[in-house]
Amino acid sequence: MNRRDFMASAGVLMVPGALKLPAVPGAEPAQSAGEDLSGIWDFRFDPNDQGEAQRWQEDSGKSGWDRSPVPISFNVVFPHERWYSGAAWYRTQFEAPRLEPGERLQVRFLSVALRARVWVNGLFVGEHLFPYSAFTLDITHAIRPGQTNHLVVRADNRILRRAIPDLHDHGWWNFGGILREVYLQRRPVIDLEDVLIHTELPGAAGASDRHAAAAGKKGWRLRFQLNFRNCGPSRYLPFHMAVEDASGQVLWQKASQQVLVKGTTRSGGGGAFTNITPWSPEHPALYTLVVRGPSGTEHRTRFGFRQIGVRGSEILLNGEPVHLRGINRHEMYPGRGMTLTAAEDRKDLEDIKALGCNFVRLCHYQQHPRVYDLADELGLLLWSEIPAWQSSRLTLSDPEVWRVYGAPQLREMILQNRNHPSVIIWSVANEVPSDTTAVRDYIDRATAYVKEIDPSRLVTFASDRHLQDICYGAVDVIATNEYFGWYYGKMSDVGPLLDNLHRKWPQKPIVVSEFGAGCALGRKPSALPARAFDYSEDYQVELLRSHLGQILAPERSGYVAGSTIWVYNDFPDPARIAPSQPPGHPFVNLKGLVTQHRQKKRAYAAVQKIYRAHAAREKQQAEKNGSQRLERNARSPA
Ligand code: ADA
């Protein structure tokens, strides 16, 4: 989101007929940049967790402090501490501007793992209790304007027994510290704090207005909500809004002027559009909602006209059935931990697109904001989830865990990413005990909560309980992780599972959200035929071909709506130890189609061939359906 500070005073546009959007509790400040505080900070470990008691937050001396680049995990910067799990402290300085009355200064962290406590000039200014969503703290009351100020952060990556993630969570390396950028943001007296954009194709699956088509309403509808905040007296201001296409051409615009009273004001607008290109993986057409003040300052929010829904056992994108040809992706890179560069993020997603994918499951946590931007640009549908990875039944049934970690983490993930047309699925968990009523209560509650915040997307969780699962009732899509031919069973068990799931849940689309096999680049089978855990490339190719053959079988196309290979990239995983791990690859999950350094294994080309052939067949079928529809329309009376 390209944002410059909003004007010093502003009005609000009350657009008559602005349709009511779901009431969203509070606003999520726009992920605008501000002053990037990345760089070399003071740093020190706190293995005995004594820092706060010893008032390190007020310590301006050098003794005991080291230096560390920010952002990047301390488990990476100090390799001898790759296993460190505990508290660690960061310290930097910044110049605070002299603020106008009503202006605010805030600090925005894009990710601190797993938890953060923050001080400015020794004054506690706030904390954040989970790792992969952004958070913003207002520090106006703590700064010394026109002087050098001290920002201190205590990060703690100990995994707690009752939290999300919880002690069961060893699905990836527990990188701790300031993992993503930190911004100093000066907010004007009147601020456009948040924009919620909603598009829909009336009458098509997933639309809130299912009868519009019958009412003859044509084209796409755009609705948007603007959350303003005024920290000064009521103001009056001319205002301009526009929708631009990618070339900057204005498709719609409206001017107005309003008074903005003190506090938060919700406004909005919208309209019907017939001359637009819907967003899809094939045509990721992006538009921009521009909100502009008199002095030319503006707020730009990118979006796409996209609608997702389910109809029986199909997933529909913009009213047409879609098969999610996908893969899982961990946000990790050697020597970078979870702090990839923009180029590394871009290369991953471009490589996934080249694989023939139209879908990526961001496993198992909210990833960097630019990953969502890149998916919008490249045309990749996204599954985004919170890190409830194999969380225990007791954790998920604990109301305090829900209040402190579950609901807020879901809310932040959604508010921070809901304008991206690429995001189509929110996931509330991965491989939790969903064959128990205690977890069904969690799934039901979490699914309802997500739909209350964002009714426009699909909600699910990744299950490994197969036919024993009792939680599919609440979700839009059955997502099943299966490792037939690797951990259990045989490769040919995939098809029967899918058919049995369909028999049991005939009105739910099924997505296979994980399947795969491990292999080391270049490794040959120790004996023939290749078998599970020989970590040969031959076996990985054989297993993926077998699973994809059953998942993509034409006879299942009516109810198997997605295949999500585990996993694009090898990644550090503390659970991968001998003897089940091949020599020379300790603590690395080797199920990637590419190595940690993104070297392609043989399976990459094998999958690419299958996915591209499937995409071609799907395109042919869509063209055939389209021409048949045209013939039917031509034959039917006017
Ligand atoms: C589970 C889990 C993944 C990964 C996978 C594996 O399905 O959801 O995160 O750990 O197993 O590689 O075994």
Give structural notes.
The protein has 638 residues and is of the alpha+beta class. It folds into three domains: 3-25 and 189-306, Immunoglobulins (Immunoglobulin-like, Sandwich); 38-180, Galactose-binding domain-like (Jelly Rolls); 323-626, Glycosidases (TIM Barrel, Alpha-Beta Barrel). The protein contains nine helices and 32 strands. The strands form eight sheets. An eight-stranded parallel beta barrel has the order 23-24-25-26-27-28-29-30, surrounded by five helices. Strands 3-2-4-10-7-8 form a six-stranded antiparallel beta sheet, with no helix packed on it. A four-stranded antiparallel beta sheet has the order 1-12-5-9, with no helix packed on it. The chain is globular, with a radius of gyration of 25 Å. 50% of the residues are buried. Residues 1-31 have low confidence and may be disordered. It binds alpha-D-galactopyranuronic acid.
Topology readout:
Elements: E1 35-36, E2 39-46, E3 66-70, H1 74-77, E4 87-95, E5 104-109, E6 112-113, E7 115-120, E8 123-128, E9 135-138, E10 148-156, E11 177-178, E12 182-187, E13 190-200, E14 220-230, E15 235-244, E16 250-260, E17 263-273, E18 287-292, E19 298-303, E20 308-311, E21 314-317, E22 320-321, E23 324-329, H2 342-354, E24 359-362, H3 369-378, E25 381-385, H4 393-396, H5 399-417, E26 423-430, H6 437-453, E27 458-463, E28 478-481, H7 494-504, E29 510-514, H8 537-551, E30 560-565, E31 571-572, E32 588-589, H9 602-635
Parallel strand pairs: 23-24, 23-30, 24-25, 25-26, 26-27, 27-28, 28-29, 29-30
Antiparallel strand pairs: 1-12, 2-3, 2-4, 4-10, 5-9, 5-12, 6-11, 7-8, 7-10, 13-14, 14-17, 15-16, 15-18, 18-19, 20-21, 21-22, 31-32
Helix pairs in contact: 2-3, 5-6, 8-9
Alpha-D-galactopyranuronic acid is lined by residues 171, 364, 430-431, 481, 514, 566, 589, 591.
